[in-house]
Write a structure and sequence with these properties.
Elements: H1 6-12, E1 35-40, H2 47-57, E2 62-63, H3 104-118, E3 122-123, E4 128-132, H4 140-146, E5 151-156, H5 159-166, H6 174-190, E6 196-200, H7 201-206, H8 208-219, H9 232-235, H10 241-245
Parallel strand pairs: 1-4, 1-5, 5-6
Antiparallel strand pairs: 2-3
Length: 265
């Protein structure tokens, strides 16, 4: 995907000023993991639900801290968090979010710093770290270079519903949010490879057991001997797309990344 148009869009859709420095408390000795799995998906796409379902079912370590949805993006200072470059519904327009792959000593330094920043917030003793942040969607090539052998779970949701659910967090219009969905997912599709697994929010809601079995097998995740209890927020899975889309005007969006991901707009 050519990104030459992104600086123009970023200037037009300037986000809020950068917030105070994220909650960064790097450990003196970074914790090491045998494997890394990154969940990628826009805000309000079901990524938090998926992360909690996988933590409850599989022997994985996760991040838990007093930051929005326990996202690793807020607990490090290696790359910008989404809020620093437009926030929900805007961040993918900023070229700085599309971090270029690293190599050699630079990749080693970035990996060490990320792990040092995340180490104080790791919950679990499993040698596999599961991390979830929306910007992962546009950073798969970089994450792949910093964490060789990592796997990626790309979670998608109907762009009309995801955009409508994001409206309360953004000053963008619904149409602009749908276009942001296209830009973010086009970047992910460009990076798509055998280390990536796709999961549609709609398929998860339609048959949670089947969807979980498929992604656990695809990501080769070890199951727990006994599943953990889920909080009420995640124990009941229901598709809320209709609630968000019921009052939307009929709109033709034309071709977009949604076509390759099974959504007909």
């Amino acid at each position: 995907m050519a990104l030459s148009f992104l600086p123009r869009i970023a200037r037009r859709l300037q986000g809020p000023a950068a917030p105070p420095a994220p909650l960064v408390q790097p450990a003196a000795t970074p914790r090491r993991f045998d494997r890394h799995v990154f969940i990628a998906g826009l805000h309000r796409s079901g990524t938090t639900l998926v992360e909690h379902l996988l933590q409850a079912t599989c022997a994985v370590s996760v991040l838990r801290a007093d930051v929005p949805e326990n996202e690793g993006q807020h607990l490090q200072d290696v790359v910008p968090a989404a809020i620093q470059l437009g926030g929900p519904g805007r961040f993918a327009f900023a070229p700085e979010m599309h971090t270029a792959p690293a190599s050699g000593a630079a990749a080693d330094r970035q990996r060490d710093r990320l792990l040092a920043c995340w180490t104080p917030w790791v919950d679990g003793d499993a040698p596999l770290l599961l991390e979830k942040s929306p910007p992962n969607l546009v950073r798969i090539p970089w994450l792949r270079s910093v964490f060789p052998g990592a796997r990626f779970l790309i979670v998608t949701r109907d762009p009309r519903a995801a955009a409508a659910a994001t409206l309360k967090w953004s000053t963008s219009s619904h149409r602009e949010l749908v276009y942001h969905w296209h830009v973010a997912h086009a970047a992910a599709l460009e990076a798509l490879a055998e280390d990536c697994t796709l999961l549609r929010y709609e398929d998860l809601c339609a048959d949670p057991g089947k969807a979980l079995d498929r992604i656990i097998a695809a990501l080769d995740l070890p199951r727990r001997s006994a599943a953990l209890d889920l909080t009420d927020r995640f124990a009941q899975i229901a598709n809320s797309n209709d609630r968000y889309m019921a009052d939307l005007p009929a709109t033709r969006y034309g071709p977009g990344a949604w076509d390759r991901l099974g959504y007909r707009l």
